[in-house]
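User: Could you go from structure to sequence for me? I need the amino acid at each position, not a summary. Structure tokens:
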């Protein structure tokens, strides 16, 4: 099973969409294995968004991510990285397909509700950035056989 990072951004919290967004991942069949609410800092965002450091809007992105606390979630499931990424939709939310999280709840390229890891490799790096081993909860999933075929477990 893959694990991926989702960050529910400050706009998601302030607009009262935390429950809606978490509910989508639950209903899809993903398993929540770690979750915490934190205030992000400039230091961690310089690392997390390093690939955007030369963009003119870099400081705006960081300011948006520090405007209120965020909810960090680790979701687990078959092909979880790609599934979650597709559920989030296009970065530029005004072009995101209806039915995706961004396509349903946002109009903005910046204030686009969620961060999701874009590859398995980056998911591992990002999860290590925000979680330690003791943050993860190991608990049974008795409905897994109703969610997956044997070769998907
Ligand atoms: P994603 O979050 O879809 O993986 P990126 O890694 O490219 O996308 O960008 C990280 C975040 O930076 C986006 O989620 C968004 O908040 C912000 N961002 C990206 N591109 C733009 C843009 N053109 N204008 C404003 N903000 C942007």
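Assistant: Here is the amino acid at each position, in order:
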């Amino acid at each position: 099973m893959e694990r991926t990072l989702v960050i529910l951004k400050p706009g998601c919290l302030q607009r009262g969409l935390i429950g809606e967004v978490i509910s989508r991942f639950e209903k899809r069949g993903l398993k929540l294995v770690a979750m915490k609410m934190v205030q992000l800092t400039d230091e961690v965002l310089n690392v997390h968004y390093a690939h955007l450091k030369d963009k003119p809007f870099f400081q705006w992105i960081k300011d948006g991510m520090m405007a209120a606390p965020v909810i960090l979630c680790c979701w687990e499931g078959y092909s979880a990285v790609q599934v979650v990424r597709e559920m989030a939709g296009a970065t530029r939310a005004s072009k995101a397909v209806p039915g995706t999280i961004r396509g349903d709840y946002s109009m903005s390229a910046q204030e686009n509700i969620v961060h999701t890891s874009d590859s398995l490799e980056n998911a591992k790096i990002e999860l290590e950035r925000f979680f330690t081993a003791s943050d993860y909860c190991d608990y049974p999933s008795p409905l897994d056989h109703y969610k997956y075929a044997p070769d998907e477990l």
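One structural detail worth keeping in mind: The chain has one domain: 2-148.
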